[in-house]
Amino acid sequence: MVHRYYANLLLTGATAGALLGGGLLWLGGQPAPARWLWLGASACVFLLTLVDIVRAMARRQAGVDLLALFSIGGALALGEYLTAGVIALMLGSGRTLEDYAERRAGREMSALLEKVPRHANRYQGQAIVQVALAAVEPGDRLLVRAGETVPVDGSLLSEQAVLDAATLTGESLPVDCRAGQRLQSGCVNAGTPFDMLATHAAEDSALSAIVRLVQSARESRAPAMRLADRYALLFVPLALALAGAAWAWSGDPVRALAVVVVATPCPLILAVPVAIVSAMSRCASHGVLIKHGGAIEKLARAETLFFDKTGTLTGGRARLVAVAGAPGADDEAVIRLAASLDQMSDHAVARAVVQAARERNLELSLPSAVSEQAGSGICGMVDGRRVRVGSLDYAAGLEPYPPWVERLARRGGQEGSGAVYVAVDGRLVGALQMADEIRLDTPRALRLLRLAGIRRSVMLTGDRREVAETIGGVLGVDEVLAEQTPAAKLAAIAASCEHGVTLMVGDGVNDAPALAAADVGIAMGARGAAAAAEAAQVVLLVDRLDRLAFALRIAQRARAIALQSVTLGLGLSMIAMVIAALGYLPPLAGALLQEGIDVAAILNALRVLGLERQPLEARLSEDRVRRLREEHAAMLPVLEQITRLADRVAELPAEQLLAGLQRLLAALRQEILPHERRDDTELYPQVARLIGGDDPMATMSHTHREIYKAVQGLERLAAALEAPELASPALPELQRALYALDTILRLHFAQEEELYHNLAG
Question: Across the strands, what pairs with 372?
Answer without folding.
Answer: 378
